[in-house]
């Protein structure tokens, strides 16, 4: 794939994601976070598969960075979701 095509797809995905997320009502943010955590888990598995298939040191470094960022993103999403769910609990507990 040409680099410009990949950059175009990345920019289009970023703008589309921003437009979709900005129009979601506040009440639906927790289910949206849960769904995005699921997607981040798939991204993490894909990055681990790519890392396992890496032949050169450069690809291994890039794969390791992808796995680290994917794991951090998934873990951070679960932490944020947990904090949001704590906000909905009653104060009697």
Task: Please describe the topology of this protein.
Blueprint: H1 3-22, H2 29-53, H3 57-87
Helix pairs in contact: 2-3
Outline the structure in words:
- The protein is mainly α and 93 residues long.
- The chain has a domain of 62 residues.
- The chain contains 3 helices and no strands.
- Helix 2 packs antiparallel against helix 3.
- The protein is flat and about 55 Å long.
- The termini are far apart.
- It is a multi-pass membrane protein.
- InterPro entries: NADP_transhyd_a_C.
- Keywords: Cell inner membrane, Cell membrane, Membrane, NAD, NADP, Translocase, Transmembrane, Transmembrane helix.
- It is found in: Cell inner membrane.
- One of its GO terms (biological process) is NADPH regeneration.
User: Which consecutive residue ranges, at least 5 long each, have pLDDT under 50?
Assistant: none
- The Rg value, from CA coordinates, equals 17 Å
Largest sheet: none
Would you list the SSEs in sequence order as H and E? HHH
Give the count of helical stretches. Answer: 3
Q: Helix share of residues?
A: over 70%
Indicate the mean pLDDT.
Answer: 84
Summing up helix and strand content along with how strands pair, one would put the structural category as mainly alpha
Between the first and last Cα atoms, what is the distance in angstroms? Answer: 55 Å
Q: Would you count the extended β strands for me?
A: 0
Strand content: under 5%
Overall outline: flat
InterPro entries: NADP_transhyd_a_C (IPR024605)
Organism: Ahniella affigens
Keywords: Cell inner membrane, Cell membrane, Membrane, NAD, NADP, Translocase, Transmembrane, Transmembrane helix
GO molecular function: NADP binding; proton-translocating NAD(P)+ transhydrogenase activity
């Amino acid at each position: 794939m040409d680099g410009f095509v990949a950059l175009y797809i990345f920019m289009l995905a970023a703008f589309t994601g921003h437009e979709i997320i900005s129009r979601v009502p506040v009440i639906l943010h927790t289910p949206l976070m849960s769904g995005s955590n699921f997607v981040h888990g798939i991204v993490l598995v894909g990055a681990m598969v790519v890392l396992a298939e890496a032949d050169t040191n450069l690809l291994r470094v890039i794969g390791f960075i992808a796995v680290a960022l994917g794991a951090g993103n998934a873990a951070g999403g679960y932490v944020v979701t947990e904090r949001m769910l704590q906000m909905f609990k009653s104060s009697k507990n």
